[in-house]
Structures are given as structure tokens and as C-alpha cells.
User: Fold this.
Amino acid sequence: MPMTTPRLRSRQPKQLDAGIFQAEISSFALRLAAEGKAAKTIQTYTEAVRWFAATCLPGLAGWEQVSSQDVQRWMAWLLDRYSSAYASNQYRALQQFFKWLAAEDQLPDPMAGLQPPHVSHKLIPVFTSQELTRLEQACAGRSFAQRRDTAIIAVFTATGIRLSELAGLRASDADLWQREITVRGKGGKDRIVKIGHQTARNLDRYSRARSRHAQARRPQLWLGAGNREPLTAAGIYQMITRRGRQCGLKVYPHRFRHHFSHTWLDRGGLEGDLMELNGWTSPQMLRRYGASARSARARRTYDRIMTDT
Assistant:
């Protein structure tokens, strides 16, 4: 395989010029779009295939010449430089492409019989109650930005929704009397999530401040401070990390999703209900969070049973 070997753990720009292989990749993207896949999912899948083709397949005349050894060497190269979870995601993107190609053009599937890289699971990063209190205190106050940031963190904590979902909320999506928020998830699928009374109060305080904002007529829920335009997902991410630094915590939006899922299962919530609330269609993530919750329960049981005598 004519693939260069950069220094261990180096981060080289991805080579994405698929050359003669691009036509099939574009057709694969069209198939994903027809299936209703989200734009980000399509980009992730097709970029993985383009990267593989540009890096591993120069010199080959077509997809029919790709072998299982090409894929295995590619996975070994990725595992030498990236996390096992990242390599596994790349594997699954290639797998979907070759399954489609085998059905579309009756070509042999070079990934038939291969196994994805083993993913070494790390501990789920959840918040302690003290850390959440510190984060709330970092946003405390009556200014527009303080009330907005308090509400954003409260919604993240109460629902565990994705950053893109939170950034996409409209002012009309929150029903404070029913304590429900309508969320547009991956693939344009809507779902309703619940919030607690305190989160509803935080949203109500923000809504009153928002009504006096110069951009209040905008449909987006989260507006910028200083009468600026609505916050983007990147803007929310920056705000969350900045608030974390203010109170000495490493905080990023997806950590709230970790915390919500772990807490739900740790407190005995049903797995099927968590899948519905989180917008999951596969039980893959359930296994990871289920293991995290079992670990937490086992540690509490140890303290109850193995008391010093």
C-alpha cells in the first residue's frame, strides 16, 4: 500500500483527493441523503472514504482491486496515530460504503469477515454536585449574559441534548408550563425532552431578559450579549469552556450528555426511556453508560457492605 508513514502521533492534514474513486463516493453520498441521513453524517462517512482512497489506493485502477489487506493496513495506521474510538468510526464508515458498493455494482466486499478495532473504553467524565454548583455560581447574576448562560447550562444538565440540538432551539420550542422542550435531532427527527422546575425558572428568567433584546424577534432561542445576533454552536461551546475556566473546571458541552446519561441509569432509569430522550437509534451507547452506572453502584455498595470493623 503506497501510504506514507509520518511520525508517531503526528497530525498531518488529511489527503482527501480521491481521484478516479470520487464518482462512487459521490453516488454513496447521494444514497445517504436519500435515506434521510443528516448532512454531518454524510460528510463524516464520505470524508472517511475519500481519506482512505486518497491515502491507500493510488496506483489502483478501481474499487474491485481493493483488498482486505488494504483495509487492515489502513486500520493499523490509524490505530498507531489516533484513538481506538476514532479508528473504529473510520472503520464503520468504510464498512457502510463497501456494503453499498457491493450491492450497487456487484463487487466483492473487501471488509467481509473483518472485525472493527477494539475500542478501549475510558471512564465516563461526569460532574460532581459540587462542580455543578461551582459552574452555576460562575454564571450567577442579573445581566443578560449571566441569565442566558445560567439557562443554557441548566438545559444541558437537565436534558443532556447535543450541542447542535441546543444551538438549534427556537424560542417557541420551550413549553415552560409543561416543562418540555421540542428538540430537532439527527436526521431532522423531532423529539420532546423534559426539564425540571428549576430549569424552567431559569429559562423563564432568561426569556424575560430576551424579550428586551434588540434581536428578540429572531426565532432562535439563544441570543448574543450586547444585542448581538444569535449564538452559534461554536459560540455556545466557547461560552461553556470559558465558564468552566472561571471556576477551575474542564467543561465542554458533551460532558453534560455524559453526566445526564450516567445519572439516569445510575438512578435506575429505564434504558429504553434513555434511548428515547437522547435520540439514540442504536443500543451501542447504552452499553457504555450502563457499565459506568454499574461501576458507580458497585462503589457505593462497597461502602455499605465493607465497613471497617
Observations:
- The mean pLDDT is 89.
- Strands lie at 174-175, 180-184, 190-194.
- The two ends are 64 Å apart (CA to CA).
- Residues 215 and 228 are 7 Å apart (CA to CA).
